[in-house]
């Protein structure tokens, strides 16, 4: 099975439409929008960052709405219809809460049911969306976006346990279906090891503050493995399309040369003229077919380039606290290894990498990338409280 066939295993499906109102937030002050059907949403611009705060009462666990879903994910929707995963709506005692940031100053909010909190596209099950600002002076724009790009109908329930464990199990399922074990073997193997470790600690009744970072590591590596498969698939499709276009251009030139030669060889002999005219008509038909095939190959090439750029744009990393020794102001061995991989990735990615960093660890991360020779333009560091 080639990379081009992997799309069948990635749960891809036709999307569905969802309505959302994009709001142009003022540079100062807090705007309260509300969440429909119920909930409170406050947005405050702080310099170049938008601070998002969500509070919802009477929230059911995701599994009660859909047995294979384990998380509520909050999306910031840009005016162009792009999606930014800004975090998971945490549920405790039947209430949902999230504080997050985005660099967008114009966006809407959707909350969807997802298998885990690091998915890169929203599911079609939209449970909450932002309302409209009360002040008429604040611009707003209703848009229609596509959700439900992935078909999770074959995903199995993740069983019983804490939410982060259920999400890690689901992430492994998705990576397995995407053939990450074959096309991103190393990253997928580390994801399975992390989940196995978390499951073992859960069985020993270890504290959740120890289990959660390990389970989160499994989720991150599973999603990263799946992204690597998609990138490889897009790159291979692009190369194939470019090769096809080259062959078609060559064949088209050969056909044109043949036509020119046929015209030059035309004589006054009527029988020969009729024959040449017949050959010429056939050559023109062949040329038109070749031109059509070439245009189709060029279109596939352009689509593949866009898919590859989108896959790389979505690359982002959330760094756990166990990467840092805050008392010493340094990286732990695991952090050094992890950030070294991020530094290497930044040199390969077309777009800057988005790094989510605990607020207290931001100076450590900046120092590490500076000493690693990574230009500031290749990394976008987002501080998280």
Brief synopsis:
The chain is α+β, with helices and mostly antiparallel strands and 385 residues long. It has eight helices and 17 strands.
Structural description of this entry:
With 385 residues, the chain is α+β, with helices and mostly antiparallel strands. It has 4 domains: 16-147, Immunoglobulin-like (Sandwich), CATH 2.60.40; 163-231; 233-312; 316-384. The chain contains 8 helices and 17 strands. The protein has helices at 62-65, 163-177, 180-183, 185-203, 208-264, 270-313, 333-348, 362-371, and strands spanning 16-24, 30-32, 35-36, 40-46, 49-56, 71-77, 83-88, 90-92, 95-102, 106-114, 126-130, 140-147, 316-318, 324-325, 330-331, 353-358, 379-384. Strand 8 and strand 9 form a beta hairpin. Helix 2 packs antiparallel against helix 4 (185-203). Mean pLDDT is 87; it is low at 1-11 and 307-314.
β-strand amount? 15-25%
Distance between the termini: 45 Å
- Using the coordinates shown, work out and report the CATH topology of the largest domain: Immunoglobulin-like
What is the tally of helical segments?
Answer: 8
User: Biggest sheet, open or closed, and with what strands and sense?
Assistant: 7 strands, antiparallel
